[in-house]
């Protein structure tokens, strides 16, 4: 299982806060020792600790749509990714990752695409064009996804390991 961490509306955008988010993401390293990734956009952070199963060579996360305006960090596996890719003929994929379809499906179908996914997953998607985001998990909840709010009442946090939630929000 991978480890994901997303923080939105972070009023403190200092280097110290960025370092804190990186440190907390590293605490999830045991969930994904193969790759660490971080995407920062204004007051939004998406961090990923990857356990490489599908496409270990090029599936590093966070993943993006073609023009990198949609960013996604995923814990899980999309079982029907090949069928979904085949439906997205006008899209260019840059990895062989099963999870890259999420960004492209969002472009095609908006938030309704979640029902098209067959698999075990939790993910957080950021659309930088309007600074909206989606957090979702599979219907059964096979992979964990926790949410919390900062002490300021503004920042939202999504994480795949509950015990770290309090640390990132403090």
UniProtKB/TrEMBL annotation:
SUPFAM superfamilies: N-terminal nucleophile aminohydrolases (Ntn hydrolases). InterPro entries: Asn_Synthetase, AsnB_N, GATase_2_dom, Ntn_hydrolases_N. Keywords: ATP-binding, Nucleotide-binding. The keyword Nucleotide-binding applies. The keyword Cytoplasm does not apply. Residues 2-170 form the Glutamine amidotransferase type-2 domain. GO terms for biological process: asparagine biosynthetic process. One of its GO terms (molecular function) is ATP binding. GO terms for cellular component: cytosol. This is Glutamine amidotransferase type-2 domain-containing protein. It comes from Salix udensis. The lineage of its organism: Eukaryota, Viridiplantae, Streptophyta, Embryophyta, Tracheophyta.
